[in-house]
Design a protein that fits this description.
By secondary structure, the chain is mostly beta strands. It contains one helix and 13 strands; from the N terminus they run αβββββββββββββ. The protein has one domain. The longest helix has 17 residues.
């Protein structure tokens, strides 16, 4: 119940912040596609990112980028790849695509929101988003705020001597796409 109240509060804030003025985007219908997991090494860790590819005769693909913490640490988002087609109220659709990098309770997920361009390629409408495996994400349809879906993340903030499954404070981020470039 507490979580629902927090999300309702956030939704009210978003609606007030952006008001009634939204531009309607002209978005194409996202083509049929398949999702492929990344290639795994002998320890079942990904060595390439998951891909989303059209099923057309000449397919176009989008691969999740790797994340580099330094020159020796590279994390590929190739595990548990999922996608969700999101129909837009103004017509057309986009796809939310994500995958995990592995690593147990310290793993991360990368998210992208893809739009199909007129040349068949895909455009990610989100900035780089990587959240922990303890994060919660949501897609909201709030047409009075934006013609596009609103993406929310709530990821824990690690403090002092907390254990993984201790109580945490969360940072909530809201991503609103308000134009149709």
């Amino acid at each position: 119940m507490k979580c629902l109240w927090v999300w309702a509060l956030v939704a009210g804030f978003v609606a007030n912040a952006w008001g009634q003025g939204t531009r309607s985007a002209v978005i194409r219908e996202f083509p049929e596609y398949r999702v492929y997991p990344g290639t795994l090494d002998q320890d079942n860790f990904p060595v390439s990112g998951a891909r989303l590819c059209t099923t057309e005769a000449k397919p176009h693909c989008f691969a999740l980028d790797r994340h580099e913490t330094d020159e020796n640490d590279r994390f590929y988002f190739g595990l548990r790849a999922t996608s969700k087609r999101i129909k837009l109220s103004g017509g057309g659709s986009v796809v939310l695509f994500n995958a995990n990098c592995g690593g147990g309770s310290g793993s991360s997920d990368r998210y992208v929101l893809l739009r199909s361009e007129s040349d068949g390629r895909f455009k990610n409408l989100l900035p780089p988003i990587v959240v922990s495996n303890q994060a919660d994400v949501a897609i909201w349809d709030l047409p009075t705020v934006s013609a596009m879906p609103i993406f929310l993340t709530a990821d824990f903030l690690w403090e002092g001597m907390e254990a993984h499954y201790s109580n945490h404070f969360f940072e909530v981020q809201i991503y609103v796409y308000d134009c149709c470039d």
